[in-house]
Amino acid sequence: MAKAITIDERRILRLNQREDRQGPVIYWMSRDQRVRHNWALLFACQKANQLGQPLEVVFTLSPSFLGAPMRHYDFMFRGLREVETRLRELGVPFTVLYGEPGETLPKYTEKRNAGVVVADFSPLKLVRGWKLAVAQQLSCAFYEVDAHNIVPCWLASPKQEYAARTIRPKLNALQGEFLTGFPEPELRHQPDTLPPPVQWNAMETLLKVDRSIKAVPGLEPGETAAEARLRSFVTGRLSRYADERNDPNSGAVSGLSPYLHFGQLSAQHATFEAARSKASEVNREAFVEELFIRRELSENYCYYNERYDSFDGIPEWAKKTLMEHAGDHRDAIYTPEQFERAQTHDPLWNAAQTQLLETGIIHGYMRMYWAKKILEWSATPAAAFDIALMLNDRYALDGRDPNGYVGVAWSIGGLHDRPWTERPVYGTIRYMNSNGCKRKFDVPRYIAEMTGKSQATLF
Fold first, then answer.
1. Whole-angstrom Cα distance, residue 213 to residue 427?
2. In this protein, which residues make up the domain named Photolyase/cryptochrome alpha/beta (predicted)?
3. pLDDT class of 451 with cuts at 50, 70, 90
4. Is there a single domain that holds both residue 162 and residue 97?
């Protein structure tokens, strides 16, 4: 007999007023692309067991997604291949539906006479629009489960929070209730036979995406790789995280952001493992602050501010000071293409952009410097915001993510920050320069390592 799966009901929202009925339970996997440590999948398992019905997992493949290039689809597809394998071991069919989700998913659920549909959570407005369209067409119950955050986004706060200091006590008050381990997915009523595997190569040919930005070599996606990277970090680099995380030469950061973005790793699981590691308290707390407090602050911003991807979404004080200095002299103004090709006068900035181009990742400290210099060298603050977001979403494996939107909005637009000393171009937005970088790490070494990897074939 399979064990009962217990899930905190505060993690679950009803997206329509329909009732559960007899029929297959369908988990619409989207943001959380993993089998283990996945509350949405576990809730779908729970529903299937309660109703005495089989579980199916469906992934909707839109022809394009917010401009994501082939680099991102390659990472996602290779991870989904592993998801399919793991699901088949559990006896769960995995189906990919190509087309607009608001059209394909309702048709599929009607064809399958589904009894329940379960979706995972995303604060992004495109995905929320898909769910609204689906909810209006389903004739069965439709649930959303926050499997991406430790504390469910809607429970953490009922409003957009001003800063980390305002959301931190709210999250910490709930941490003990939600930062737990996970049960294993168990099912009682799966079919004896499964449909043929997904034809992934054929699916890839259907995509309408930029194929010029190739996959990152040497970076293995998927649940297994994510878990291995987490273990390597927790048992090794975490012990020096607090002191060395802002040094891009130190190798002290986790490298987990692509896996967290694609949902190949649970932030709750990663935080749980880090919190009970043998690293010192100061190192554990520094990492949990980033993975829990700062990350869920970003989710809060995108959930409550639909202008999260626009200069218009930044705080009014920041807009005011930036516009007051919009006409200030700039030492250089670069086009989006010059930024993209790392063709500025600053070797440090060019090295950071080269790292992004080649590895799909910028070290966190360098990403702040990178974005602030785009502000300094763009014709207008709004243009700088758009350029930084374009480059991040086009090349970073964790692009089109709340952390990315908030990273740009913090660096350029003062989001979750406060006014600082007034200066040209920046106004009272926090300033960064290369001298500050030199005080934190070996800048020549970073430049040499990044530009030494440069490949003219990129362009």
1. 36
2. 23-153
3. confident
4. no
What domain range is 266 assigned to? Answer: 149-181+221-306
| Amino acid at the residue 14 | R
Domain end, chosen from 256, 284, 306, is at 306
Phi, psi of 431 (to 5 degrees): -100, 150
Whole-number percent of the chain with pLDDT over 70 = 98
d(CA 250, CA 260): 22
pLDDT digits 0-9 by tens, 76-105: 999 999 999 999 999 999 999 999 999 999
Sequence-ordered list of residues with C-beta below 8 angstroms from that of 177, at least 6 positions apart, any chain: 8
Which domain CATH number covers 168?
1.25.40.80
Decide if 397 contacts 404 (C-beta within 8 A): no
Residues 122 and 176 in one domain: no
Q: What type of residue is 375?
A: L
- Residue 452 CB partners (closer than 8 Å, separation 6+): none
Distances (CA, A) of 225 to 151, 221, 228, 264: 25, 6, 5, 9
For the sheet with 116-120, list strands across it: 12-14, 141-145, 116-120, 25-29, 55-61, 94-98
Q: pTM of this prediction?
A: 0.95
Cβ-based neighbours of 166, under 8 Å, separated by 6 or more: none
Say if residues 262 and 76 touch (Cβ distance below 8 Å). Answer: yes
* Chain segment 43-76, per-residue pLDDT in tens: 999 999 999 999 999 999 998 888 899 999 999 9
Q: Are residues 273 and 232 in the same domain?
A: yes
Q: Which of 206, 204, 260, 205 is nearest to 74 (CA)?
A: 204
How many domains is the chain built from? Answer: 3
Single residue among 101, 125, 148 that ends a domain in this structure: 148
How high is the mean pLDDT of the chain? 95
Percent above pLDDT 90 for the chain: 94
Q: What angle do CA 54, 60, 63 make, to 5 degrees?
A: 160
Q: How far is C-alpha 285 from the chain's CA centre?
A: 21
Q: In terms of DSSP bridges, do strands 94-98 and 55-61 run parallel, antiparallel, or are they unpaired?
A: parallel
Same domain, 171 and 320: no
* Strand residue runs (E) in 141-261: 141-145
